[in-house]
Amino acid sequence: MARKDLMKGLMGDDTPSDPPARVDAARPRYTKGAIGAVSRSIEDLKRRSIIEVDALMIDEGGLKDRLDDDADLATLIASIRDYGQQVPVLLRPNPNDPERYQIVYGRRRVAALKALDQPIKALIRDLDDQALVLAQGQENAARKDLTFIEKANFARQMRDAGYDRKIICDALAMDKTLISRLLSVADRVPVRLIEAIGAAPGIGRDRWLALADKLGDRDLVDQARGDGSDARFEAVMAALRAPKRPTAPPTQIKTTAGAPMAEVARKGGKTVLSIPQKTSAGFDDWLIENLPDIHRNWQNQNGE
Q1: Nearest-angstrom CA–CA distance, 155 and 161
Q2: Contact 233, 211 (CB under 8 A)
Q3: CB-based contacts of 110, cutoff 8 Å, min separation 6
Q4: Residues 210-229: pLDDT tens digits?
């Protein structure tokens, strides 16, 4: 029997005459007998091998683990330009497009290599969503470079995505008590404020807990100003220590007949107009519909 016929007999009559354009390293087609053993050996070799992937074929994946994505990126770009990429990234086939990939970990390396227009050295693993976030979290935990608030934000994202507490513990290599402390901060400090402050590498658990304890319902996003994220955290804490300004009572607007029509309140850089539906008689709908025209007329009157 010719070699081709022998292989055909081992694999079955439906063996394709040409190999597929892209072999999925984590899904061997044949799992039994001699061919299955060969397939598993090839799979193991592929799992250990590093390939080069065009940066344009890589999409985002997993959860957002870093708050300062651009932090020190210029330094990383310069290092890779001088010394090359020393550590491969981990990718998985994109479940929405098997011809593309998603990042499991190594986002900053991918960004730096994209900026340098260089291919990315990568390991490829076929991971489901749960295995992806586990790998992402464990890689960060092993490097110990995520800050306290980045870990808290990562734990919150996992919980909100439906992962149970054990999976979150495994991903961050922490026990349930520490995860509870992370989530306690993440639940009491709004995401907008966390993102406005940033990673805050010099700020540990105790100070974030103190901020969460004092914050209450105060909106301090506008106070998160400073040259770095640590400075922005300190600015927010300083604002918390300052005496709380009394909130101005809402201004009441009346109709020409003197009946109450609406209230205007200004707080946290916002102007809120409240119109009780029981007294609006459809005026609220009319106002919403005509607001662009009203704004345009105001611009014309002010020469804008």
Answers
A1: 10
A2: yes
A3: 55, 58, 89, 103, 120
A4: 999 999 888 899 999 988 88
Cβ distance 59 to 139 under 8 Å? no
Give residue 210's pLDDT. Answer: 93
Looking at this protein, which amino acid is placed at residue 154? F
Q: In the structure, what pLDDT confidence band is assigned to residue 83 with cuts at 50, 70 and 90?
A: confident
Residue 55 tokens, joined: 């940066």
Q: Where are the alpha helices (DSSP H) in 84-190?
A: 107-115, 129-143, 148-160, 165-172, 176-188
Query: Rounded distance, CA 67 to CA 230, Å?
Result: 13
Name the residue among 45, 226, 78, 228 with its Cα closest to residue 147: 228
Report the distance separating Cα 201 and Cα 140, nearest Å: 14
Please tell me the distance from the alpha carbon of residue 267 to that of residue 251, in angstroms, as a whole number. Answer: 12
Question: Tokens 């990673």 sit at which residue?
Answer: 199
Burial class (CB in 10 A: 0-12, 13-18, 19+), 291: exposed
Orientation of helix 165-172 relative to helix 148-160, angle to 10°:
150
**This prediction's pTM:** 0.48
DSSP 8-class letter at 244: P
- Cα–Cα distances (Å) from 279 to 254, 259, 261, 294, in that order, read 11, 10, 7, 22
Which residue type occupies 205?
R
Q: How far apart are CA 34 and CA 14, in angstroms?
A: 17
155, 182 contact by CB (below 8 A)? yes
Q: Which pLDDT value is given to residue 64?
A: 62
> Alpha-carbon distance 217 to 214, whole Å?
9
**Segment 225-240 mean pLDDT:** 91
Q: How far apart are CA 61 and CA 45, in angstroms?
A: 25
CA angle 258, 262, 266 (to 5 degrees): 130
pLDDT by residue (tens digit) across 178-191?
899 999 999 999 99
